[in-house]
Amino acid sequence: MTKIITKEEILLAKKALDNGELVIFPTETVYGIGANALKENVVDKIFKAKGRPSNNPLIVHLKNKDEISKYAYISNEIEQKLIDTFMPGPFTLILQKKNIIPNNVTCNMDTVGIRIPIDEVAHHLLDILDYPIAAPSANLSSKPSGTRVSDIFDEFDGKVSYIIDGGESRIGLESTVCKVIDNVPTILRPGFITKEDIEEVIGKCNVSEYVLKEAHGNVESPGMLYKHYSPNTKCFLCDKEKINEIVKQYKKAIVIGNEEISCYKFYHYGNDLVTIAHNIFKLLREADRDKADVIIIQSVEYHGLGLAIMNRLIRTCEYNYIKRN
Ligand code: TXA
Ligand code: MG
C-alpha cells in the first residue's frame, strides 16, 4: 500500500535534514534512517541511534546518475554498465570514494556504497536537497529491517526528528550490494537484483562466499560480520520436511512458511519468492510480539531472489539451519 505524501511533509523532512537531524524515509527496499552524508558530526548520530558498530559503512543515496562523479570514481566499463542498467533501483554499487565523503560514512574504507532509489517519495526528498543522504536500514542494529513505520516507531521514538510514512516497502529486502573485483561484478549482499540479472548484462557475476556462511576478520562487506535481522525469540531455519519434528519439541512454536501446519501460531509468508521477500521482515517482527518459545522459518530455494532471502534468514537464525537429510 502506498500512502500519499504531501509536499509539506517532504519540506518538513528537508528542514530536519538541513538542521543536521535524522529522518526516517521510505525507499522501495526498506526504510532508511538518513542524515546529510557530507557532515561528519551529523552522520555520527546515525551510528548512535542504531547502536551500529563503527566499522560498518553506510550507503550514500543520490538523486540521479549525474551526481555519482561528484562523490566517487567510475573506474571501468563494467561499473558504468552496472550503473546504466540497474540504477535507479534496488542496487548499491561500491566505488572508489572521493574525499568529499567523510571518513565516518565509509568507516575509513577508500570505497563508498552508492545507491539511487527509485521510490517516488525518496526521490521527492533527494530532489530538493543539495547534498546526498547517508542511510542504513531503519532498525536497531541486529534487528530485522523496517518495512513499516509501525514496526520501527518504538525503536526510534525520540531519536529522529521526522518520519515519512510511505506505507509498506514494496520490495521488503535491502538492495543488492555489488563491487567490481578484478573486472568481475561480485555480489557482497544479495538482493532484488539477482546474480542471474547481472549475468544477463555482464556475462559473469561472482557471489561472495560469505553470503551464506559466517564471516570473520577482514571481509569485503563488514555488514556480513554481525548478528543481523534477528527477533528476540529463538529462531530456526528449517527445510519443510523437518518442520513437524521441530514443532513437536516446543510448547509454543510459531511457524512461518507456505503450508499451514498445526502449531501455536502459523504465519503464511507467500507462495513465491517476491511475496516472501516482501513479507518476511514484517512477519518476523509480528511473530516476535507473540512471545513464543521458538520461531521456525521454512527455507526457500537458493536461486534468484531466494539467495537474498536465505542470506537474511540464515543470519536471523544465527546459522541454526535444520536441513532435510
Ligand atoms: O536497500 C538498502 O540498501 C537500504 C536502503 C535504506 O537503502 N540500506 C541498507 O543499508 O540496507 P545497511 O546499512 O543496512 O546495509 C548496507 C550494507 C552493509 O552490509 C555494509 O557493510 C555494506 O552495505 N557496505 C556499505 N558500504 C560499503 C563499502 N564501502 N564496502 C563494502 N560494503 C559496504
Ligand atoms: Mg541493515
The span between the termini is 40 Å
Number of strands: 16
What proportion strand?
15-25%
Order of helices and strands: HEEHEHEHEHEHEHEEEHEEHEEHEHE
Radius of gyration: 19 Å
Please tell me what the overall shape is.
globular
SS content category: alpha/beta
Structure annotation, total helices: 11
Largest beta-sheet details? 11 strands, mixed
CATH H level, superfamily name of the largest domain: DHBP synthase
Q: Return the domain count.
A: 2
| Ligand list | threonylcarbamoyladenylate, magnesium ion
**From the 3D coordinates, which CATH architecture of the largest domain would you assign?**
Alpha-Beta Complex
The CATH class of the largest domain, by name, is Alpha Beta
Supply database-style keywords.
325 residues; alpha/beta; DHBP synthase; Rossmann fold; 2 domains; 11-stranded mixed beta sheet; 5-stranded parallel beta sheet; 16 strands; globular; binds threonylcarbamoyladenylate; binds magnesium ion
In short:
With 325 residues, the protein is α/β, with parallel strands linked by helices. It has helices at residues 7-18, 40-50, 68-71, 77-86, 103-106, 120-127, 149-156, 195-202, 243-247, 273-289, 305-316; strands spanning 23-25, 32-36, 59-61, 72-73, 91-97, 111-115, 133-134, 162-163, 176-181, 184-189, 206-207, 235-238, 253-257, 265-268, 294-298, 321-322. The model has no long low-confidence stretch (mean pLDDT 95).
